[in-house]
Amino acid sequence: MGSSPLPEWASEPCIMGIDEAGRGPVLGPMVYGCLYCARSFQKTLASLNFADSKTLKEEKREELFEKLKADSSLGWEVDVIDPRELSAKMLQRVKINLNEISHNSAIGLVSRVLNMGVLLTEVYVDTVGDAEKYRIKLSERFPGVNFVVAKKADSLYPVVSGASIVAKVTRDRALRDWILDESADNMHRNFGSGYPGDPGTKAWLDHHMHPVFGFPTLVRFSWGTCTPYFKDIVEVIWESDKLEEDGSNSNGGKRQLKLSNVGFTRNKKKSEDIESSGKGRCKFFQARKLELVANF
Amino acid sequence: MEEEKSFRVSPPESTIGGGGGVTGTIDLCRRDPSSAVDLTDRVHLLPCSIKHDGPCPVSHYFKPRDLDVVVDGSSVEEAFFRGRKLQGITVPLPEGYRGHVLESKKSGKGKGFGNLGRGRGRGVQTVGFSRAEFRNLTYWNHDIVPSSDDPLVRSFHWFSVADALHKPVTAEEMSSTSTFPD
Q1: Is A85 known to sit in a ligand binding site?
Q2: Residue B94 is part of a domain; what is its CATH number?
Q3: Is residue B108 domain-resident?
Q4: B79 is in which domain, residue-wise?
């Protein structure tokens, strides 16, 4: 990824565009990609005319990506965020929401390129959340760099359109080549685009729903799309949710996908469902969660 | 070492929910040696309560993998369940101990042993038996790095305490202890 020895143009003032692919789907990785070049190359870049990657056909995008990779005046990087990481972070005790995950990925790309020794002076990104807040966050993190945060940045800035192609093709390939972790019979890989509205994806979800395990880990469990499928899922009560309901939650006002929305019930269950209260037992046993079993 | 063949279970004197419990024996010897199942390396304690009893394709969906992390001498593994990332450690049962998966004799569906009705028989009946054995188990934490402070690891302290409390005193130990201070 990117060039190995640093190209000469990297020591000139450089610009970079960042875009993502796969934010909406319920399946597969989310990919953040970036494209960078010398500022002096900007005009040539504009003439390459990428247009909005979403309107291009897959073959055309692939072709463009190969062209970008072959161009020695361009550098590129990707951060492929595994769906397991997305679910894990959004379902942690102290949850990390999707915007924060996105911000961190973009920040990671800028860091990576700077650490390579590239003289980045301007970075163009698409808005995630509040544009001004995002710009301030980025500027504070990288004081020497000028950040432009704009809606539809991929249609405004060629470096971002280029980054969009890098991200999209990387995501498409990752999904196409995805190997399911799970080894159950009757699983297949015709998951469609992964978008909730895609009939192929819906059919795949229907077919792969398991009452205890939910879905294969290709699926983002933290996505609202999963909720209707979890209507009849076996109930699972987590220790960490129980603690949360007791008020010691530092999340406060952050708007998160409610766990109850993805089929996890909380609040109503007595703690006895998970463990006994330890009443009447000495500290040695209580601390070690040991109880005398009378009925089992 | 002589292996315990069975142990006796009976309800305590006062039980919430009424009496009517039965004293019985749970047979730890395999009912049918050819059907013995060894679940060593395959028993997992999750940090959640799953409201389901019954067979499940665990090995098809639950795929622990080794992280290159060692904590307190044990290697930490990672796995996912319902989208949550778990970290676990495999703890061996101490020497001389064995884990058993028990099944009640009354109902093969594993409905439990409690309150099998007022015992009418005079002899002690077998109320359950061992279906499988294991020599270690893996416990999993959600968002808490496993360590020897975890409740399961600490619960194993009971083994040495029980030993100290209940091991029969040998004749030598008796004689080497003086009973009257001078």
Answers
A1: no
A2: 2.40.128.680
A3: yes
A4: 27-164
Determine the pLDDT at residue B73: 87
A244 carries a ligand binding annotation = no
Q: Is residue B131 part of a domain?
A: yes
What ipTM does the predicted assembly reach? Answer: 0.82
Q: Which of A239, A288, A295 sits opposite B142 (nearest CB)?
A: A239
Q: Which amino acid belongs to residue B126?
A: T
In total, the C-beta contacts within 8 angstroms joining chain A to chain B are 111
CA-to-CA distance for B137 and B141, rounded, in angstroms? 13
CA of A230: how far to CAs of A142, A212, A214, A296, in Å?
42, 10, 7, 30
Q: Is residue B135 part of a domain?
A: yes
Q: Which residue in chain A is spatially nearest to B110 when comparing CA positions? A: A296
CB contact set of A242 (below 8 Å; sequence gap of 6+): A266, A269, A271, A274
Render pLDDT for A6-34 as a digit per residue (tens, 0 to 9): 999 999 999 999 999 999 999 999 999 99
Say if CB A41 and CB A116 are below 8 A apart: no
CA-wise closest residue to B133 among B10, B40, B26: B40
Q: Are A12 and A75 in contact (CB under 8 A)?
A: no
Alpha-carbon gap: B170 to the closest alpha carbon of chain A (Å): 27
Domain count, chain B: 1
The residue in chain A having the minimum alpha-carbon distance to the alpha carbon of residue B144 is: A93
Structure confidence at residue A201 (pLDDT): 95
Residues from chain B that touch A91, judged by Cβ atoms under 8 A, are 82-84
Read off the pLDDT band of B108 (50, 70, 90): very low
CA dist A106 and A291 (Å) reads: 50
Q: What angle do CA A148, A151, A154 make, to 5 degrees?
A: 80
Distance between alpha carbon A138 and the CA centroid of its chain, in Å? 18
3-state secondary structure of B178: coil
| Burial status of residue B173 (CB atoms within 10 A of its CB: 0-12, 13-18, 19 or more) | exposed
User: What mean pLDDT is predicted for residues A275-295?
Assistant: 76
Model pTM?
A: 0.81
Strands A146-150 vs A120-126: parallel, antiparallel or unpaired: parallel
Name the token pair of B151: 């409740």
A223 within 8 A of A24, measured Cβ to Cβ: no
- Give the distance from residue B169's alpha carbon to the nearest chain A alpha carbon, in angstroms: 24
Q: Are B39 and B133 in contact (CB under 8 A)?
A: yes
Looking at the complex, does the CB of residue A229 fall below 8 Å from at least one CB of chain B?
Answer: no
Which residues in chain A touch residue B48, judged by CB atoms under 8 angstroms apart?
236-239, 274
A19 marked ligand binding residue: yes
Residue A259 confidence (pLDDT): 45
Strand A75-81 relative to strand A30-38, pairing? antiparallel
Residue B115 belongs to a domain: yes
